[in-house]
Amino acid sequence: MVDLLANRKREQTARGTNRLVSELFDDRRGGSQLKDPTSMAIQLYDQPGFVPLKGPDSSLAELTDFICAAQMARADDAHLGELPHEDESGPSHVHGDPPKDKKRKFFEDERWERKKHRAYEKKHMDDDETIRLPNPMIGFGIPDEPWHMSHRTLPEPAIGPPYFYYENVALAPKGVWNTISRFLYDIEPEFVDSKYFCAAARKRGYVHNLPIHNRFPLMPLPPSTINESLPLTRKWWPSWDPRTQLNCLQTCIASAKLTERIRKALEDWDDEPPLHVQKYVLDECRKWNLVWVGRNKVAPLEPDEIEMLLGFPKNHTRGGGISRTDRYKALGNSFQVDTVAYHLSVLKDIFPGGINLLSLFSGIGGAEVALHRLGIPMKNVVSIEISETSRNIVRSWWEQTNQKGNLIDFTDVQQVNGDRLEQLINSFGGFDLVIGGSPCNNLAGSNRVSRDGLEGKHSALFYDYFRILDLVKCIMGKNQ
Ligand code: SAH
Predict the structure, then answer these.
(1) What are the SAM-dependent MTase DRM-type domain coordinates in residue numbering (predicted)?
(2) Total domains present in the chain
(3) Which among 272, 350, 426, 428 would be 20 to 30 A from 137, CA to CA?
(4) Quick one: 172 and 259 in the same domain?
(5) Are 433 and 380 in contact (CB under 8 A)?
(6) pTM score of the predicted model
(7) Ligand 1: which atom is nearest the Cα of residue 369?
(8) Would you call 397 helix, strand, or coil by DSSP?
(9) pLDDT band at residue 132, thresholds of 50, 70 and 90?
(10) Is residue 143 part of a domain?
């Protein structure tokens, strides 16, 4: 049965490869030839619709074999007839950026459809075997309980180089984490709630191939309660509000209308309000993370308080004309630095001279700040982030902290192709860590409108994380 499945998978991959080879040839017909089967394999990996075999079968050698077979079969490949006529006038692009002609667009759409279809099939397979979230959500261990688990065996294809680290919301729709895990070499996700690291909850899943023994936390340990983190709220905190920690810090805050309504609901009572009023107020406070800043007065957290809770330096997101709304938004999407740093801490001994980092969906630089706070030098950072505001925040932090390395930034992960990666890898000898948390917009429970799962417009960028990581693995494998 296993053999049968493996054969079918091999056949499907061969067919897919054959098809993609045809497309590659078509793109380049009349233009220059590809260098050799290995470069072609790399080009293939660059195709958004290409999903390699997992297991030892996915080696470059095997892929190259497939290409040779596909090249031979190509002569009488009936599929070719189905392809639209190409625009002969267009330039050939073997090593440049992809041509932006109609045909290319057609193929991109077609590949995209294939990609979606594959993921859809997987999703249905996954429905029976949804990953369970652990309770307590402490992953493979937290600073207070580092002995929880100190060893795991990674599937062979998951082992680096490079090391990689992928993050997203833990409470995603059914099947999402199974799909993420399957794409990312069948690694079991590590689910962690940041409430074990700071005074605010943040339930996230992390798929990574890092060692898990000898982790250490960032020092000083951040305060773990609201009371310690925001001492000025102590004076006003009513005895009937039992909260000691905050809920997940979100991208938007409560309106002034709401806080005013709460004030009005409380002002009629000298002492403790009746239970139903308490319940109303507590529900709203929990939902919006409101804190007590005066008598009967609650307020949302200030951006600098959120920065502190998430482990960023004070005023990290301030300046450069950024609005408060955008600060909340960028912070709401970011890593909790202490949590991520705990996982990345193992890199300190492995790379005493520093690392080359590929940071996808960098946002406000949670990964970079974590590495810096761990004392891991960053030699070269390639950071890819679509928001100009966020790119400016990272650039400004880079300058403020007198980083010695190079920060190279790009805008869109979808534009990053194999040629670009090969150039970068050749220029500084490879990436040690590929890190990123792709957008969670279509996964998060707070999205009532378009919680479309991994195939949603934004969340589907996960597949670009996988595509880029797999390309880096392949290029670095070839260079070894
Ligand atoms: N881990 C980051 C935040 C990740 S949130 C941090 O610590 O701050 C996801 C990020 O992906 C957002 O900043 C969003 O602007 C960015 N993004 C969305 N689409 C993108 C694309 N096509 N290319 C690059 N970045 C993108």
Answers:
(1) 150-479
(2) 3
(3) 350
(4) no
(5) no
(6) 0.76
(7) 7
(8) helix
(9) confident
(10) no
Kindly state the tokens that stand for 92: 């050939």
Q: Which range of residues forms the domain containing residue 160?
A: 156-221+312-479
| Distance from residue 30's CA to the centre of ligand 1 (Å) | 38
Which H, E and C letters describe 118-179, residue by residue? Answer: HHHHHHHHHHHHCCCCCCCCECCCECCEHHHCCCCCCCHHHCCCCEEEEEEECCCCCCHHHH
Which residue out of 198, 248, 285, 440 is catalytically annotated? 440
Q: Which of 334, 385, 393, 413 to probe ligand 1 with, by most ligand atoms within 8 A of CB?
A: 385
Whether residues 191 and 281 share a domain: the answer is no
pLDDT in tens, 155-189: 999 998 999 999 999 999 889 999 999 999 999 99
Contact 224, 198 (CB under 8 A): yes
Kindly indicate the confidence band of residue 120, based on its pLDDT and cuts at 50, 70 and 90.
low
On whether residue 90 sits in a domain, the answer given is no
Shared domain check, 430 and 358: yes
Question: In whole angstroms, what is the distance from residue 46 CA to residue 464 CA?
Answer: 10
Give the tokens for residue 112.
């995209």
Q: Ligand 1: residues whose CB is within 6 Å?
A: 333-335, 361-364, 366, 384-387, 390, 412-414, 437, 439, 461
Same domain for 318 and 212: yes
pLDDT per position as a tens digit, 249-306: 999 999 999 999 999 999 999 889 999 999 999 999 999 999 999 999 999 999 999 9
Exposed e or buried b per residue across 344-355, where buried means at least 16 C-beta atoms within 10 angstroms of its C-beta: bbbbeeebeebb
Q: Do residue 277 and residue 175 come from a single domain? A: no
What the block records as the tokens of 220 is 């000083």
For residues 378 and 418, state if they share a domain.
yes
Torsion angle, alpha carbons of 145, 149, 150, 153, to 10: -160
The Cα–Cα gap between 36 and 40 comes to 6
Tell me whether residue 145 is in a domain: no
Can 252 be counted among the known catalytic residues? no
Torsion-angle region of 423 (φ positive above 0: left; ψ -120 to 50: alpha; else: beta)? alpha
